[in-house]
Design goal:
globular, mainly alpha
Length: about 500
């Protein structure tokens, strides 16, 4: 596998920004208290089925494993030291998964992913066909078969599979892009444009979508439309070399010679930069390390299939091996943290969360959960320090400032300390939630005037929020009945919360 290709174990069609762990996450039956915990939004590991970005969920009911299955997955006793040994181990693990759960299309899809890269394309094709026998609408089998058909130049077959993938997963705009490319290769230019335009509407921030639409317009000889699409792609990604080349072609056809020359120069510049980058990657490429990184991702996904099939111990074996394979792998560490939490092992969970916080220092989810676990253990000072460390390292995180303010209010009865962080959160987010929090902090600190000002800001943002209006009315009533203190020096709104 060359270093400039997407690893097979990486999600095959993952939308950029689809954070695997902070965005499309669902937790089910076993997570009773999850809804109240922000941390759980970081874990797509419901006990009932795996949430993966690169394979569809099983469309058939989970089947119990075969009678008396082995108690362990077939991992080598120690980490394989050579690439060949590592490939052999992963082949055993993927094959074992498919044998244990022959009715689960996810299990076969994991095996097909391995086979396509490290066995034989015909074997991978047969495995994906097995997925379709179990579930004719299994999107990722259609994706795999579409890619095989494209490699063979069978564009009509590739188009048919991309159509089925879209029907199975219509929200995945990357499938639309691939269908458009397949239609274009098959000579169906008008339909390709229609499909790619739909992909751009679905994901207007996709530079690739705009560039592929521009390429389709070029093929139709609609050069003005192509120019518009390529320009849109470059607004999103100014260093998109292919878009510069397409724009240069469109401008040449439109008679804009000077502009065409400028974009051709940009194409050469950015293509050269990319070439230097790839050459550097190849020089630094370590076969064993690269394989371990790829397979850590695959083991993370296989572990989720085991979890969905009610085998958490086997899932844990794979996640721990994945963590030892690749020090930067998020997925297996997130899965382990979730599992350790389910096993009521707070200190081990905290250790894993600290690793995650190191890998994603901008995420507030991990320090928030670390703090919660420390409170559960009765270690309030450690809970506070975890939040303070994050607030100090990420001063522009509204979530971090908000969490620290809430901690001071709820657990330390320190409203003056809460005021500082609540104000910072409100200034960063300009959300009603944070202005209300600031108002509460001021009120508990005894500064009704500053509390009223904060609530008025919240009401200005959400004028139809009845609850905020009632809170504001109660504050105004409290201020009206507050005893006057003529000898007390006047305090401006700007420094009212700095009083001792």
């Amino acid at each position: 596998m060359s270093s400039d290709q997407e690893p097979r174990a990486v999600a095959q069609d993952r939308p950029p920004g689809a954070r695997p762990w902070l965005r499309n996450l669902v937790l089910a039956v076993a997570l009773i208290a999850v809804a109240a915990w922000g941390f759980y939004s970081a874990f797509p590991l419901p006990p009932g089925e795996p949430e993966r970005t690169d394979a569809a969920k099983p469309a058939v009911a989970a089947r119990a494993p075969d009678a008396d299955p082995p108690a362990r997955v077939p991992l080598d006793p120690i980490m394989p030291e050579t690439g060949a040994d590592l490939i052999a181990e992963v082949g055993r693990v993927a094959g074992d998964l498919a044998r244990r759960f022959p009715q689960n299309p996810d299990a076969h899809e994991m095996l097909a992913r391995y086979q396509l890269e490290y066995a034989d394309i015909a074997v991978a094709e047969a495995t994906w066909q097995r997925c379709l026998e179990l579930n004719a609408n299994y999107a990722y089998a259609h994706i795999g078969l579409a890619k095989i058909a494209t490699q063979r130049g069978e564009f009509d077959a590739a188009t048919a599979h991309w159509r089925r993938a879209i029907l199975a997963d219509p929200q995945m705009y990357l499938h639309q892009i691939e269908l458009g490319k397949s239609l274009l290769a098959a000579g169906e230019i008008d339909e390709a444009i229609e499909v790619l335009a739909g992909a751009v509407r679905a994901a207007p921030a996709s530079a690739r979508g705009h560039a592929e639409l521009g390429a389709a317009y070029l093929q139709k000889r609609d050069d003005a439309a192509a120019k518009t699409s390529f320009e849109a792609a470059l607004r999103l990604d100014p260093k998109y070399a292919t878009a510069h080349f397409g724009l240069a072609t469109a401008c040449t056809r439109l008679g804009l010679a000077e502009l065409a020359q400028a974009h051709e120069a940009k194409y050469v510049e950015y293509r050269s930069e990319r070439g230097d980058e790839l050459r550097g990657q190849r020089l630094a490429y370590d076969d064993e390390a690269a394989l371990a990184e790829d397979f850590a991702l695959l083991y993370s996904d296989i572990g989720k299939v085991f979890l969905a099939e009610g085998q958490p111990a086997l899932a844990e074996q794979l996640w721990r091996r994945a963590a030892s394979m690749h020090a930067e792998n998020l997925a297996c560490r997130q899965a382990l943290a979730w599992l350790l939490m389910q096993q009521n092992k707070p200190l081990e969970t905290i250790r894993m969360l600290r690793e995650l916080a190191r890998l994603e220092p901008e995420s507030a989810a991990y320090p928030l959960e670390i703090s919660r676990l420390y409170r559960q253990l009765g270690r309030g000072e450690d809970a506070r320090r975890a939040l303070e460390a994050f607030a100090d390292s990420s001063p522009d995180s509204a979530a971090g400032q908000r969490a620290l303010a809430e901690f001071y209010l709820q657990f330390q009865n320190a409203p003056q300390s809460a005021v500082e962080h609540a104000r910072r959160a409100a200034e960063l987010s300009e959300s009603t939630q944070d202005w209300v929090l600031l108002g509460s902090a001021h009120e508990l600190a005894g500064d009704l005037t500053a509390a009223t000002v904060a609530l008025e800001r919240a009401a200005a943002i959400a004028p139809d929020d009845l609850q905020i209006r009632q809170m504001l009315a109660l504050l105004r009533e409290a201020r009206a009945t507050e005893p006057s203190e003529p000898d007390k020096p006047a305090t401006s709104n700007n420094n009212s919360d700095n009083r001792e």
